[in-house]
Specification:
With about 220 residues, the chain is α/β, with parallel strands linked by helices. It folds into two domains: about 5-75, Elongation Factor Tu (Ef-tu), domain 3 (Beta Barrel); about 85-210, Rossmann fold (3-Layer(aba) Sandwich). The chain is built from four helices and 15 strands. It has helices spanning about 55-60, 100-105, 155-165, 195-200, and strands at about 5-10, 20-25, 35, 40, 45-50, 70-75, 85-90, 110-115, 130-135, 150, 170, 185-190, 195, 205, 210. The termini are far apart.
């Protein structure tokens, strides 16, 4: 998938949860697991799109057939799917939860943005999507109309969408160590209050999000 790896795990007894929720995946040889949005939910497997940019994600993307890891989830709050006119918007590795969402919503209109054509190879996960590459941004090609936006991507993209579509459902990212609210490592400011993104998110209504404040460890 271009520079990304699609990590496919035998599903076993794990339930896929709701699009936008995440799982904590053990990174072999690393102390802490890594939070990963579920990308695909198939009858016998769960798949995660991994960007190998650090020791943990490189360890996950280097797994081979037959390797075993610990998986914990689903966790957090996913997208609300009871919307009238869904529009999926993704940027870079933020497209990770959107193939699962696209299947659940029966192929809604989708726009995806990437830094390079190499990164854009991952758009094959949603064949019907409209794809742009920088310097064009997804916010420049949003279709006209009254859409219910479900989005995931880099913070500048989400902030821009929040201004354009105040009621958008936005999946945010933050460092996480546990995934269930114990470590307070994923605190963000929401409406003037500090909230843990792993339990109050990661999907948040665009009108209520503030900004990350960094780990409170």
């Amino acid at each position: 998938m271009g520079p990304y790896a699609l990590l496919r795990l035998a599903r076993g007894r794990l339930e896929p949860g709701i699009p936008g929720q995440f799982f904590m995946l053990e990174a072999p040889g690393r102390l802490l697991p890594r939070p990963m949005s579920l990308c695909l939910a198939r009858p016998r497997e769960l798949a995660f799109l991994v960007d190998p940019v650090g020791p943990g994600t490189r360890a996950l993307s280097s797994l081979e057939t037959g390797d075993r890891i610990m998986v914990f989830g689903p966790l957090g709050n996913g997208f609300r799917l009871d919307v009238r006119s869904p529009l999926l918007v993704g940027g870079g590795i933020g497209i990770a939860p959107l193939p699962y969402a696209a299947g659940a919503l029966r192929a809604p209109p989708t726009v995806l943005g990437f830094r390079t054509r190499h990164h854009a190879e991952a758009a094959s996960l949603i064949p019907s999507a409209e794809v742009v590459v920088e310097p064009t941004f997804v916010t420049e090609i949003l279709p006209a109309g009254d859409f219910d936006v479900l989005a995931c991507g880099p913070e500048p993209m989400l902030e821009a969408l929040r201004r354009i579509v105040p009621g958008a459902q936005l999946a945010w990212e933050a460092p996480m160590a546990c995934g269930y609210g114990a470590c307070w490592g994923c605190v963000v400011e929401m409406g003037g209050q500090l909230r843990r993104l792993c339990v109050d998110g990661p999907v948040i209504n665009g009108g209520t999000h503030g900004s990350p404040v960094g780990p409170l460890l």
